[in-house]
Give the backbone structure.
Amino acid sequence: MIKGDKKPILLFILSLAIFAYAIVRRLGVELPDDAAFFLRYAENAAQGHFWVWNVGESPVWGASAPLFPLLLILPIKLGAPPVASIIWISVGLSSVALAATAILISRRFGYLAACSFVVLAALDTPTMFFAGSGLETPLTFALLAFALFVLIEKRGEWAAGFAMGLLAVHKMDLIPVSAALLVAYVILIRRIPVRAILIAAVLSAVWYGFAWTYFGAPVPNSFLTKALHQNDFVNIIDWRWFGSTVYYRFDHWVLSVLALIGLVRARKNAAPLLTFMLGLLLVHLAAYTVKHPFEPYDWYCMPSLYVLLILAGVGVANLGDVAQKLAGSKGLVGVVAVCLLLAVVVRSEIEFQRADAKSRQNWLAYVEHDRAEAGRWVNENTPQSFRVLTAWGNPAYFSRRYVYDLSFLNRRYESGDLIKKYRPEILIFQNSEQSTPLTPDQYGSDYTAIKIFDSAFGSGEGNYFFTVYARKDVVPQIHDVVFPLKTSCVSTQDCHRYSPLEAERPSAQRPADLPVDSVSSEYCHLDELNHEPFSANEKVSRQNTFEFSGWALNGSEKSLPTVLFVKFSGAAGTFYASARSRYYRPDVPAVLRLPSSLENAGFKTKLDLSGLPVGDYNISILVGARAQTQECSAQSIHLSQ
């Protein structure tokens, strides 16, 4: 850096502000569930118990990134709220690490590459979301930036050794990245860095030796559980998860294309740097393709995405250089080309990134909120001596009770029925697919549901709700228990919308939920019969069972229906059957130019028509409103024997 040159300082300050703003814009109202695992350990450590899950119990190495909770101890001890501490340390550390990365990129590839990195990283919602959500990603960014600093600034063996050792300690999946840094450093200095290797080995030996002695195992308990016992879980992702998340999903294909262009520029006189970055990309792609988790832990992808963003920024700058050469000018052609390209990327990506941010924030605002509220309610309404059995971080942390961790990430694996074995006073569970807030799961005759948290269910986020159960003999000791349980369901049909459809026989009796006065409506359509497009005058046999689906709205109020029926009108009479609403149909508000809040306008019904006489029937959709029934004529069928 030229003495008196203020450009690096200005770049750092501007980058810091942009990253802090971009991260804060992605924050939600609650912590992601796994972040609460870290917070439980950090708060126990701040209270003088060091690394324990349950105070007074043998220590367990549960959170797999041991250095991150240590950063939280000081602010918590100084009186800062724990949740605020983990969020603002995450925001601050990520902003500094990413801004420092921009400075390093400018030193090696120029200011256009650095500015492009800042724009692309700040635009990417997954990167900014996990940078501030309370998981280990901020420290990962900081240690990767430190590794780049060692290579780009050609630092000595002490710095290299600390970088390798800290990477190896921070997370087990960064041990091969530490090895890639060693290879890169060997290429950089053209000899074996004995001192650096010794420093890294000492750091690793000290931590893993301590872990073996203190925790009874040299690897995290969470790693053992995931490696040995999660194979029995139902996988909701497959081997393609990691590669698609990093290189294609969330519009990352744009980054991949730009990164390939960046490699053309970066390969010149940058063998150590490319060895490190490509080594990271390759080992993580191989590791998480061969052994993927059972559900998408997308923050595992952040080291690779960090490298991809750097290469993409270099790629943008390379295209600027090409434009400069084609113009045959030494003016601002390259700068203008880079600005135009970034403007095109931002313009094409911004709506998707906003939608992605909104989706993640909704998850925190509803699903994670329900989880956390279940824990808070237990803390406020049950005796301190009560023990809780649950499988999630938020209820475990916010209940502030002795917790049997059924995920076994923070408890050594035990087979068998832990409910019967330990008989805890409180259970906090997520629903199964078949249950509803009106019919929560049952866990034997000893337990009863005492509280439902289902804002996610009511908001349309999906079939998610959390139930607090109590052992029946301790219910009198618990406050705020009211039967029947309150739910967010606006109707019985609404509450059962995620249950498997069961065949219903239409009835000749008009439903009491439908007002007598009727008006015509155009806000409905019957689309499919047994998952095939519905054709006019469809001929069907009454010996079969039929599933009808379509969409319907309360036309007068432009709202989702709470009471919905299908009517069959024919010479033999009129028959009614209920329909289940609130199925996802985002095309409906888009076509009708209505608010996106009406995207759950779909309905379904499964009918047994064997009780209807043979003949022709007109099918209508009936929406029950406040004072009248809105009737929408849909299709006709001929019912044969």
